[in-house]
Amino acid sequence: MSSASSSPSAIRDALSSVFRESLTATASHCYTNERPVSRIPPRHALQDPPLKPTAQALLDRACSILTSGPPLSMNVELADGEELPVAMHTLNQGAVWACLMGGGANPDLEDRVLDEAREKWPDETEMYDKLRKALTPEAKCLWFLCRKFFFTLNVAEKDGESYQCSDEDECGNCYGCYHHRMYMGRLFMLDTTKHTALTRARMPRALEVYSNWITHIARTPKGLWGWGENYYGQLGFKSLGSSTRPASPSPTAPRSPSARPACPPGISTGW
Q1: Among residues 12, 14, 207, 229, which is most buried (max CB within 10 A)?
Q2: DSSP label at 263?
Q3: Is residue 182 part of a domain?
Q4: Residue 239 to residue 226: CA distance in whole angstroms
Q5: Domain-located, residue 199
């Protein structure tokens, strides 16, 4: 389109013309199982003058999707001897969930963590701001990149576990909020006093997690691992830090998690 014909009315007329041509070109398309089986007009019939290489590549991709359908991320039909492509969406659900979580995806689509924190501690604006920066609305979009990602999130919400508590003193002053999520043995934690995002726990695959306020012990194939409050040595080591490490609860600490039944799905119980 020349500069002389780039007035708003000329642009509107040109777009209307293109729209009418697209309706005519696609009117005879037949769709079966969400995939068109007829062919669209050749490229030269829809473009004059020739497009730039970058624009042509985008148009070719659109034509490929219209004629053959988009690449599927789920329920991929394979021929005899054919294998799944080497791609992220072909990993198992636990691996997909862990990759997206590690990449900063926000699993809290309904803002339950933020709402609970704001309801319990309405005056703790600094803590709420830290949670909002760690669980941004933009990071929710990663779950909608393909159907497999969104399906994985829904399964993780149903079959996984989550836990949330606050670090308060006897007077009710809140110093921070702790939250963790676990699915298929992968555990990601967020402590507003130490983390700026959901961070994967550096420990073997967790089979079960038991929490007593801000003290946590996980049962793994390689023994017990603990983190959180350790002022009384209840985790079995002397450090007061928050690093995740092998735990050996002392006899004076609350009952060992191994003596308790497995917690129900979606809930991390206290001692």
Answers
A1: 229
A2: P
A3: no
A4: 11
A5: no
Query: 18 in a domain, yes or no?
Result: yes
| pLDDT, tens digit (0-9, with 9 covering 90-100), for 87-127 | 888 889 999 999 999 999 999 999 999 998 888 888 888 88
| Residue-range definition of the domain harbouring residue 64 | 3-68
Rounded Cα–Cα distance for residues 86 and 231 (Å): 48
Say what the pLDDT of residue 249 is: 46
- For residue 96, tell me if it sits in a domain: no
Residue 61 has pLDDT above 70, yes or no: yes
Q: Of 250, 230, 232, 249, nearest to 241 (Cα)? A: 230
Q: How far is CA 16 from CA 42, 44, 256, in A?
A: 21, 20, 72
Number of domains, the chain: 1
> Tokens 């007329």 identify what position?
13
The verdict on pTM exceeding 0.85 is no
Q: Convert the pLDDT of each residue in 177-187 to its tens digit.
A: 899 999 999 99
**DSSP characters over 116-185:** HHHHH-TT-HHHHHHHHHHS-SGGGGGGGSSHHHHHHHHHHHHHSEEEEEEEE-TT--EEEEEEEEEETT
| 11, containing H or E segment | helix 8-26
